[in-house]
Hints:
It is built from ten helices and 32 strands.
Amino acid sequence: MARQARPPIIAVMGHIDHGKSSLLDYIRKANVVAGEAGGITQHVAAYVAEHNGRAVTFLDTPGHEAFKALRARGAQAADIAILVVAADEGVMPQTLDALAAITEAKIPFVVALTKIDKNNADLERAKNSLLEHGVYLEGLGGEVPYAAISSKSGVGIPELWDLVLLSADLVGLVADPEAPAEGFVLESTQDSKRGASATLILKDGTLATGLPGQGSFVVAGDAYAPVRFIENFLGKRVDSAGPSEPVRISGFSKLPPAGTPFLITASKKEAEKRAQASAGGDGFRSDWLTHSDEARGSKEDVTARASDAELALVVKADVQGSLDAILHEIKKLSHEHVAIALLASGVGAVSESDVKAASAAHGVIIAFSVGTDAAARDLALRDGVTIESFTVIYELSKKISELLILRAPRVMLETELGRGKVLKTFSSGAKRQVLGVRYLGGVFALGRQIKILRREIEIARGKILNLQIARANVEEIRVEGDFGVEIEAREDAAPGDEIVVFALIES
Protein backbone atom coordinates (compact mmCIF):
# COMPACT_ATOMS: atom_id res chain seq x y z
CA MET A 1 0.00 0.00 0.00
CA ALA A 2 1.24 3.51 -0.78
CA ARG A 3 2.37 5.70 2.04
CA GLN A 4 -0.28 8.06 3.34
CA ALA A 5 -0.30 11.27 5.33
CA ARG A 6 -0.22 10.64 9.07
CA PRO A 7 -1.14 12.84 12.06
CA PRO A 8 1.68 14.94 13.48
CA ILE A 9 3.27 14.13 16.84
CA ILE A 10 3.81 17.33 18.79
CA ALA A 11 6.16 17.76 21.74
CA VAL A 12 5.09 20.55 24.09
CA MET A 13 8.30 21.80 25.72
CA GLY A 14 9.49 24.63 27.92
CA HIS A 15 10.41 25.87 31.38
CA ILE A 16 8.58 24.74 34.49
CA ASP A 17 5.38 26.69 35.25
CA HIS A 18 5.33 28.35 31.85
CA GLY A 19 1.93 26.83 31.03
CA LYS A 20 2.57 23.58 29.13
CA SER A 21 0.02 21.48 31.01
CA SER A 22 -2.48 24.33 31.11
CA LEU A 23 -2.26 24.56 27.32
CA LEU A 24 -2.80 20.82 26.90
CA ASP A 25 -5.59 20.95 29.45
CA TYR A 26 -7.41 23.53 27.39
CA ILE A 27 -6.81 21.65 24.15
CA ARG A 28 -8.10 18.27 25.25
CA LYS A 29 -10.60 19.53 27.83
CA ALA A 30 -9.17 17.24 30.51
CA ASN A 31 -7.97 18.33 33.90
CA VAL A 32 -4.30 17.38 33.77
CA VAL A 33 -3.07 20.13 36.07
CA ALA A 34 -5.11 18.94 39.06
CA GLY A 35 -3.59 15.48 38.76
CA GLU A 36 0.00 16.68 38.84
CA ALA A 37 2.03 16.73 42.01
CA GLY A 38 3.64 19.99 42.96
CA GLY A 39 2.67 21.67 39.72
CA ILE A 40 5.06 19.65 37.54
CA THR A 41 4.44 16.71 35.26
CA GLN A 42 6.52 13.80 36.53
CA HIS A 43 6.97 11.89 33.27
CA VAL A 44 6.19 12.00 29.58
CA ALA A 45 2.54 11.45 28.69
CA ALA A 46 0.79 11.30 25.32
CA TYR A 47 -2.67 12.49 24.34
CA VAL A 48 -4.67 12.63 21.13
CA ALA A 49 -6.80 15.65 20.22
CA GLU A 50 -8.60 16.82 17.10
CA HIS A 51 -8.86 20.19 15.36
CA ASN A 52 -11.05 20.73 12.31
CA GLY A 53 -11.34 16.96 11.92
CA ARG A 54 -7.57 16.38 12.01
CA ALA A 55 -6.00 14.24 14.73
CA VAL A 56 -2.87 15.40 16.53
CA THR A 57 -0.83 13.54 19.15
CA PHE A 58 0.64 15.70 21.90
CA LEU A 59 3.60 14.75 24.09
CA ASP A 60 3.73 16.57 27.40
CA THR A 61 7.39 16.81 28.39
CA PRO A 62 8.37 17.90 31.93
CA GLY A 63 9.97 21.27 32.53
CA HIS A 64 11.99 20.52 35.67
CA GLU A 65 15.74 20.54 35.09
CA ALA A 66 16.14 16.95 36.31
CA PHE A 67 13.95 15.75 33.44
CA LYS A 68 16.27 17.06 30.74
CA ALA A 69 16.81 13.56 29.31
CA LEU A 70 13.06 13.00 29.06
CA ARG A 71 12.64 16.21 27.11
CA ALA A 72 15.32 15.01 24.70
CA ARG A 73 13.42 11.74 24.21
CA GLY A 74 10.20 13.65 23.62
CA ALA A 75 11.86 15.71 20.92
CA GLN A 76 13.29 12.61 19.23
CA ALA A 77 9.87 10.94 19.13
CA ALA A 78 8.12 14.09 17.91
CA ASP A 79 7.71 15.59 14.46
CA ILE A 80 7.13 19.18 15.56
CA ALA A 81 7.64 21.01 18.84
CA ILE A 82 5.76 23.79 20.58
CA LEU A 83 8.23 25.83 22.60
CA VAL A 84 6.25 27.37 25.45
CA VAL A 85 7.56 30.69 26.79
CA ALA A 86 5.69 32.65 29.46
CA ALA A 87 5.09 36.28 28.53
CA ASP A 88 5.80 37.40 32.09
CA GLU A 89 9.22 35.74 32.35
CA GLY A 90 10.63 35.13 28.89
CA VAL A 91 13.44 32.66 28.25
CA MET A 92 14.50 30.65 31.32
CA PRO A 93 17.10 27.86 31.88
CA GLN A 94 14.87 24.96 30.92
CA THR A 95 13.66 26.93 27.90
CA LEU A 96 17.22 26.75 26.62
CA ASP A 97 17.43 23.02 27.41
CA ALA A 98 14.21 22.44 25.47
CA LEU A 99 15.51 24.52 22.57
CA ALA A 100 18.74 22.50 22.54
CA ALA A 101 16.74 19.24 22.42
CA ILE A 102 14.64 20.58 19.54
CA THR A 103 17.76 21.68 17.66
CA GLU A 104 19.44 18.32 18.21
CA ALA A 105 16.34 16.46 17.00
CA LYS A 106 16.27 18.70 13.90
CA ILE A 107 12.52 19.21 13.99
CA PRO A 108 10.58 22.42 13.22
CA PHE A 109 8.98 24.29 16.09
CA VAL A 110 6.37 26.90 16.86
CA VAL A 111 6.63 29.33 19.80
CA ALA A 112 3.64 29.72 22.12
CA LEU A 113 3.86 32.92 24.20
CA THR A 114 1.67 32.00 27.18
CA LYS A 115 0.14 33.83 30.12
CA ILE A 116 -0.58 36.96 28.09
CA ASP A 117 -3.49 37.75 30.44
CA LYS A 118 -1.23 38.22 33.47
CA ASN A 119 -0.81 41.77 34.76
CA ASN A 120 2.96 41.65 34.39
CA ALA A 121 2.95 40.05 30.94
CA ASP A 122 5.25 41.82 28.50
CA LEU A 123 5.10 40.31 25.01
CA GLU A 124 7.80 42.52 23.54
CA ARG A 125 10.21 41.70 26.33
CA ALA A 126 9.50 37.97 25.90
CA LYS A 127 10.08 38.23 22.15
CA ASN A 128 13.34 40.09 22.70
CA SER A 129 14.54 37.43 25.15
CA LEU A 130 14.00 34.85 22.41
CA LEU A 131 15.89 37.00 19.89
CA GLU A 132 18.78 37.28 22.35
CA HIS A 133 19.05 33.47 22.32
CA GLY A 134 18.94 33.07 18.57
CA VAL A 135 15.21 32.40 18.10
CA TYR A 136 14.19 34.72 15.27
CA LEU A 137 10.42 35.05 15.15
CA GLU A 138 8.34 35.84 12.08
CA GLY A 139 8.05 39.57 11.61
CA LEU A 140 11.21 40.11 13.65
CA GLY A 141 13.77 39.06 11.09
CA GLY A 142 13.16 35.33 11.23
CA GLU A 143 10.94 32.47 10.13
CA VAL A 144 9.89 30.90 13.44
CA PRO A 145 6.09 31.15 13.71
CA TYR A 146 4.55 32.14 17.02
CA ALA A 147 1.20 32.75 18.67
CA ALA A 148 0.37 34.74 21.80
CA ILE A 149 -2.10 32.69 23.83
CA SER A 150 -4.05 32.45 27.06
CA SER A 151 -4.89 28.97 28.33
CA LYS A 152 -7.53 30.49 30.57
CA SER A 153 -9.62 32.26 27.96
CA GLY A 154 -8.45 30.34 24.89
CA VAL A 155 -7.29 33.51 23.12
CA GLY A 156 -4.74 32.66 20.42
CA ILE A 157 -5.08 28.86 20.70
CA PRO A 158 -6.94 28.44 17.36
CA GLU A 159 -4.10 30.37 15.71
CA LEU A 160 -1.58 28.09 17.43
CA TRP A 161 -3.44 25.03 16.13
CA ASP A 162 -3.31 26.44 12.60
CA LEU A 163 0.44 27.08 12.86
CA VAL A 164 1.07 23.53 14.09
CA LEU A 165 -0.99 21.94 11.32
CA LEU A 166 0.63 24.19 8.71
CA SER A 167 4.06 23.11 9.94
CA ALA A 168 2.97 19.48 9.70
CA ASP A 169 1.80 20.01 6.12
CA LEU A 170 5.14 21.58 5.21
CA VAL A 171 7.04 18.63 6.67
CA GLY A 172 4.91 16.17 4.69
CA LEU A 173 4.49 13.42 7.28
CA VAL A 174 3.65 10.02 5.78
CA ALA A 175 3.40 6.41 6.90
CA ASP A 176 2.38 3.01 5.59
CA PRO A 177 -0.63 1.80 7.63
CA GLU A 178 -0.15 -1.77 6.41
CA ALA A 179 3.48 -2.05 7.48
CA PRO A 180 4.48 -3.60 10.83
CA ALA A 181 4.54 -0.97 13.54
CA GLU A 182 7.70 0.93 14.41
CA GLY A 183 8.29 3.75 16.86
CA PHE A 184 9.67 4.66 20.28
CA VAL A 185 9.11 3.70 23.91
CA LEU A 186 7.80 6.80 25.65
CA GLU A 187 7.60 5.39 29.15
CA SER A 188 7.76 2.10 31.06
CA THR A 189 6.42 1.04 34.41
CA GLN A 190 6.04 -2.03 36.63
CA ASP A 191 3.06 -3.08 38.72
CA SER A 192 1.97 -6.25 40.47
CA LYS A 193 -1.00 -6.94 38.17
CA ARG A 194 0.24 -6.03 34.70
CA GLY A 195 3.93 -6.67 35.15
CA ALA A 196 6.31 -4.65 32.98
CA SER A 197 4.34 -2.27 30.74
CA ALA A 198 5.33 0.43 28.28
CA THR A 199 3.73 3.37 26.49
CA LEU A 200 4.70 3.34 22.82
CA ILE A 201 4.33 6.00 20.15
CA LEU A 202 3.92 4.63 16.63
CA LYS A 203 5.85 6.45 13.91
CA ASP A 204 4.95 4.03 11.13
CA GLY A 205 2.76 1.01 10.47
CA THR A 206 -0.13 -0.48 12.42
CA LEU A 207 -0.07 -2.43 15.67
CA ALA A 208 -2.90 -4.94 15.92
CA THR A 209 -4.06 -8.09 17.66
CA GLY A 210 -5.24 -11.12 15.75
CA LEU A 211 -4.57 -9.96 12.19
CA PRO A 212 -3.29 -12.63 9.74
CA GLY A 213 0.32 -12.02 8.90
CA GLN A 214 0.67 -9.31 11.56
CA GLY A 215 3.63 -9.68 13.88
CA SER A 216 2.64 -10.55 17.42
CA PHE A 217 5.64 -9.45 19.53
CA VAL A 218 7.02 -5.99 20.31
CA VAL A 219 10.80 -5.81 20.70
CA ALA A 220 12.38 -2.74 22.33
CA GLY A 221 16.09 -3.06 22.94
CA ASP A 222 16.66 -6.18 25.04
CA ALA A 223 13.01 -6.35 26.14
CA TYR A 224 10.08 -7.94 24.33
CA ALA A 225 6.34 -8.49 24.90
CA PRO A 226 3.51 -10.38 23.21
CA VAL A 227 0.76 -8.20 21.77
CA ARG A 228 -2.08 -9.80 23.73
CA PHE A 229 -4.07 -6.58 24.06
CA ILE A 230 -3.63 -2.92 23.20
CA GLU A 231 -4.74 0.06 25.28
CA ASN A 232 -5.14 3.55 23.85
CA PHE A 233 -4.26 6.78 25.65
CA LEU A 234 -7.61 6.71 27.46
CA GLY A 235 -6.86 3.27 28.90
CA LYS A 236 -9.47 1.59 26.68
CA ARG A 237 -8.72 -1.66 24.88
CA VAL A 238 -8.60 -1.39 21.10
CA ASP A 239 -8.04 -3.93 18.33
CA SER A 240 -5.46 -1.84 16.52
CA ALA A 241 -3.55 1.44 16.51
CA GLY A 242 -2.14 3.28 13.53
CA PRO A 243 0.63 5.76 12.80
CA SER A 244 1.19 8.54 15.37
CA GLU A 245 -1.00 6.90 18.03
CA PRO A 246 0.18 6.30 21.61
CA VAL A 247 -0.58 2.83 23.03
CA ARG A 248 0.22 0.79 26.12
CA ILE A 249 1.48 -2.80 25.91
CA SER A 250 1.93 -5.06 28.95
CA GLY A 251 3.85 -8.26 29.61
CA PHE A 252 7.40 -7.19 28.70
CA SER A 253 10.22 -9.54 29.65
CA LYS A 254 11.86 -6.57 31.41
CA LEU A 255 11.36 -2.83 31.52
CA PRO A 256 12.33 -1.27 28.18
CA PRO A 257 14.18 2.02 28.69
CA ALA A 258 12.30 5.14 27.66
CA GLY A 259 13.43 6.40 24.27
CA THR A 260 14.26 2.95 22.90
CA PRO A 261 13.12 2.28 19.31
CA PHE A 262 10.76 -0.69 18.94
CA LEU A 263 9.77 -3.01 16.11
CA ILE A 264 7.44 -5.97 15.58
CA THR A 265 8.36 -9.63 15.07
CA ALA A 266 6.16 -12.52 13.99
CA SER A 267 7.29 -15.02 16.62
CA LYS A 268 8.58 -15.26 20.16
CA LYS A 269 11.72 -16.98 18.91
CA GLU A 270 12.59 -14.05 16.66
CA ALA A 271 11.73 -11.59 19.45
CA GLU A 272 14.09 -13.37 21.84
CA LYS A 273 16.83 -13.44 19.22
CA ARG A 274 16.57 -9.70 18.57
CA ALA A 275 16.40 -8.92 22.29
CA GLN A 276 19.51 -10.99 23.00
CA ALA A 277 21.33 -9.22 20.19
CA SER A 278 20.50 -5.89 21.82
CA ALA A 279 21.57 -6.99 25.30
CA GLY A 280 24.22 -4.72 26.71
CA GLY A 281 22.87 -1.59 25.04
CA ASP A 282 20.88 0.50 27.50
CA GLY A 283 19.33 2.98 25.08
CA PHE A 284 18.87 6.21 26.98
CA ARG A 285 19.73 4.79 30.40
CA SER A 286 22.30 6.61 32.45
CA ASP A 287 25.77 5.12 32.15
CA TRP A 288 26.79 5.92 35.70
CA LEU A 289 24.50 3.52 37.57
CA THR A 290 23.13 0.02 37.18
CA HIS A 291 19.33 0.04 37.11
CA SER A 292 16.86 -2.52 38.43
CA ASP A 293 17.37 -5.32 40.91
CA GLU A 294 20.56 -6.36 39.13
CA ALA A 295 22.32 -3.61 41.08
CA ARG A 296 21.31 -5.13 44.40
CA GLY A 297 24.18 -6.42 46.46
CA SER A 298 26.88 -4.59 44.51
CA LYS A 299 27.27 -1.12 45.97
CA GLU A 300 28.41 1.55 43.57
CA ASP A 301 29.42 4.92 44.89
CA VAL A 302 28.09 7.88 42.97
CA THR A 303 30.28 10.43 44.71
CA ALA A 304 33.99 10.51 45.49
CA ARG A 305 35.32 7.31 47.11
CA ALA A 306 37.61 9.36 49.29
CA SER A 307 34.67 10.18 51.55
CA ASP A 308 34.76 9.24 55.21
CA ALA A 309 31.18 7.91 55.45
CA GLU A 310 28.49 6.48 53.24
CA LEU A 311 24.78 7.03 52.62
CA ALA A 312 23.39 3.80 51.17
CA LEU A 313 20.19 4.18 49.13
CA VAL A 314 17.58 1.96 47.55
CA VAL A 315 15.61 3.98 44.98
CA LYS A 316 12.18 2.90 43.70
CA ALA A 317 10.03 4.92 41.28
CA ASP A 318 6.75 4.64 39.44
CA VAL A 319 8.20 4.63 35.92
CA GLN A 320 11.61 4.29 34.29
CA GLY A 321 11.69 7.91 33.19
CA SER A 322 11.14 9.12 36.74
CA LEU A 323 13.84 6.75 37.97
CA ASP A 324 16.35 8.07 35.43
CA ALA A 325 15.54 11.64 36.43
CA ILE A 326 15.89 10.87 40.14
CA LEU A 327 19.26 9.19 39.64
CA HIS A 328 20.35 12.17 37.57
CA GLU A 329 19.33 14.44 40.45
CA ILE A 330 21.08 12.27 43.05
CA LYS A 331 24.26 12.34 41.01
CA LYS A 332 24.40 16.12 41.46
CA LEU A 333 24.26 15.84 45.25
CA SER A 334 27.50 15.59 47.18
CA HIS A 335 29.09 16.07 50.56
CA GLU A 336 32.74 16.51 51.42
CA HIS A 337 32.76 13.63 53.90
CA VAL A 338 29.94 11.35 52.68
CA ALA A 339 29.62 9.15 49.60
CA ILE A 340 26.27 8.07 48.18
CA ALA A 341 26.13 4.33 47.48
CA LEU A 342 23.32 2.93 45.34
CA LEU A 343 22.31 -0.47 46.69
CA ALA A 344 19.52 -0.98 44.16
CA SER A 345 17.16 0.94 41.91
CA GLY A 346 14.06 -0.14 40.10
CA VAL A 347 10.48 0.51 39.10
CA GLY A 348 7.54 -0.60 41.21
CA ALA A 349 6.43 -0.79 44.83
CA VAL A 350 8.94 -1.16 47.68
CA SER A 351 9.39 -4.90 48.28
CA GLU A 352 10.81 -7.13 51.02
CA SER A 353 14.03 -7.54 49.05
CA ASP A 354 14.41 -3.74 48.97
CA VAL A 355 14.02 -3.59 52.74
CA LYS A 356 16.51 -6.43 53.25
CA ALA A 357 19.07 -4.68 51.03
CA ALA A 358 18.66 -1.41 52.92
CA SER A 359 18.76 -3.15 56.32
CA ALA A 360 22.00 -4.98 55.57
CA ALA A 361 23.76 -1.70 54.73
CA HIS A 362 21.96 0.52 57.27
CA GLY A 363 20.56 2.35 54.27
CA VAL A 364 17.46 4.36 53.42
CA ILE A 365 14.75 3.57 50.87
CA ILE A 366 13.65 6.40 48.57
CA ALA A 367 10.16 5.78 47.14
CA PHE A 368 8.95 8.11 44.39
CA SER A 369 5.23 7.93 43.62
CA VAL A 370 5.06 4.25 44.63
CA GLY A 371 3.63 2.39 47.60
CA THR A 372 5.12 -0.22 49.90
CA ASP A 373 4.06 -3.88 50.01
CA ALA A 374 2.43 -4.86 53.31
CA ALA A 375 5.12 -7.46 54.02
CA ALA A 376 7.85 -4.92 53.22
CA ARG A 377 6.26 -2.36 55.54
CA ASP A 378 6.16 -4.85 58.42
CA LEU A 379 9.77 -5.87 57.81
CA ALA A 380 10.88 -2.23 57.68
CA LEU A 381 9.21 -1.55 61.04
CA ARG A 382 10.83 -4.62 62.57
CA ASP A 383 14.32 -3.88 61.22
CA GLY A 384 14.13 -0.11 61.70
CA VAL A 385 14.57 0.69 58.00
CA THR A 386 13.48 4.19 56.99
CA ILE A 387 11.28 4.52 53.89
CA GLU A 388 11.07 8.09 52.60
CA SER A 389 8.17 8.67 50.19
CA PHE A 390 7.90 11.57 47.71
CA THR A 391 5.81 12.80 44.81
CA VAL A 392 7.87 15.94 44.07
CA ILE A 393 11.49 15.73 43.04
CA TYR A 394 12.50 18.95 44.82
CA GLU A 395 11.48 17.48 48.17
CA LEU A 396 13.34 14.26 47.38
CA SER A 397 16.55 16.14 46.63
CA LYS A 398 16.20 18.24 49.76
CA LYS A 399 15.73 15.17 51.96
CA ILE A 400 18.75 13.36 50.54
CA SER A 401 20.84 16.48 51.14
CA GLU A 402 19.67 16.44 54.77
CA LEU A 403 20.52 12.74 55.07
CA LEU A 404 24.02 13.43 53.76
CA ILE A 405 24.55 15.99 56.50
CA LEU A 406 23.26 13.60 59.15
CA ARG A 407 25.58 10.81 57.92
CA ALA A 408 28.65 13.03 57.87
CA PRO A 409 31.28 12.13 60.51
CA ARG A 410 31.32 14.59 63.35
CA VAL A 411 34.32 16.92 63.18
CA MET A 412 35.51 17.86 66.66
CA LEU A 413 37.51 21.04 67.22
CA GLU A 414 39.50 21.83 70.35
CA THR A 415 38.55 25.07 72.07
CA GLU A 416 40.87 26.43 74.77
CA LEU A 417 39.01 27.31 77.98
CA GLY A 418 41.81 28.19 80.38
CA ARG A 419 45.57 28.23 80.89
CA GLY A 420 48.00 28.14 83.84
CA LYS A 421 51.70 27.74 84.56
CA VAL A 422 53.05 24.94 86.79
CA LEU A 423 54.99 26.40 89.73
CA LYS A 424 55.61 23.28 91.85
CA THR A 425 54.93 19.55 91.98
CA PHE A 426 53.58 18.48 95.39
CA SER A 427 52.97 14.78 94.75
CA SER A 428 52.65 12.29 91.91
CA GLY A 429 51.87 8.62 91.45
CA ALA A 430 49.37 6.21 89.91
CA LYS A 431 48.73 8.70 87.10
CA ARG A 432 47.65 11.36 89.62
CA GLN A 433 49.51 14.57 90.36
CA VAL A 434 49.01 17.50 92.72
CA LEU A 435 50.43 20.71 91.31
CA GLY A 436 50.81 24.32 92.31
CA VAL A 437 49.68 26.47 89.37
CA ARG A 438 49.61 30.18 88.58
CA TYR A 439 46.47 31.37 86.79
CA LEU A 440 47.12 32.82 83.33
CA GLY A 441 43.58 33.13 82.00
CA GLY A 442 40.22 31.54 81.25
CA VAL A 443 38.41 29.05 83.48
CA PHE A 444 39.55 25.92 85.32
CA ALA A 445 36.64 23.61 86.28
CA LEU A 446 36.25 20.14 87.79
CA GLY A 447 36.07 17.31 85.27
CA ARG A 448 37.45 19.37 82.40
CA GLN A 449 39.99 17.92 79.97
CA ILE A 450 43.54 19.25 80.10
CA LYS A 451 46.78 18.86 78.23
CA ILE A 452 50.33 19.44 79.49
CA LEU A 453 52.56 21.57 77.29
CA ARG A 454 56.33 21.65 77.67
CA ARG A 455 57.87 24.43 75.60
CA GLU A 456 54.59 24.52 73.61
CA ILE A 457 54.86 20.80 72.82
CA GLU A 458 52.11 18.54 74.16
CA ILE A 459 53.46 15.74 76.37
CA ALA A 460 50.25 14.37 77.90
CA ARG A 461 46.49 14.71 78.28
CA GLY A 462 44.24 14.15 81.21
CA LYS A 463 41.47 15.74 83.30
CA ILE A 464 41.02 17.86 86.43
CA LEU A 465 40.14 15.85 89.55
CA ASN A 466 40.23 18.58 92.21
CA LEU A 467 40.81 22.34 92.64
CA GLN A 468 41.87 24.23 95.80
CA ILE A 469 42.38 27.86 96.78
CA ALA A 470 44.02 28.34 100.17
CA ARG A 471 43.47 24.59 100.82
CA ALA A 472 39.72 25.01 100.34
CA ASN A 473 38.08 22.85 97.65
CA VAL A 474 36.38 24.80 94.84
CA GLU A 475 34.55 23.77 91.68
CA GLU A 476 36.12 26.32 89.37
CA ILE A 477 38.75 29.03 89.20
CA ARG A 478 38.46 32.09 87.01
CA VAL A 479 40.46 34.79 88.88
CA GLU A 480 44.17 35.62 88.97
CA GLY A 481 46.35 34.06 91.63
CA ASP A 482 47.96 30.77 92.61
CA PHE A 483 45.97 27.59 93.30
CA GLY A 484 46.32 23.84 93.71
CA VAL A 485 45.07 21.34 91.15
CA GLU A 486 44.94 17.57 91.16
CA ILE A 487 45.04 16.07 87.67
CA GLU A 488 45.01 12.62 86.11
CA ALA A 489 47.61 12.22 83.34
CA ARG A 490 50.06 9.61 82.02
CA GLU A 491 53.10 11.90 82.17
CA ASP A 492 54.28 14.00 85.12
CA ALA A 493 54.24 17.75 84.81
CA ALA A 494 57.29 19.78 85.81
CA PRO A 495 57.75 23.39 86.92
CA GLY A 496 57.58 25.67 83.88
CA ASP A 497 55.10 23.47 82.02
CA GLU A 498 51.72 24.87 81.10
CA ILE A 499 48.32 23.32 81.82
CA VAL A 500 45.75 24.05 79.13
CA VAL A 501 42.06 23.40 79.82
CA PHE A 502 40.11 22.59 76.63
CA ALA A 503 36.82 21.27 75.31
CA LEU A 504 35.99 19.36 72.12
CA ILE A 505 33.31 21.22 70.17
CA GLU A 506 31.48 19.62 67.23
CA SER A 507 31.76 21.74 64.11
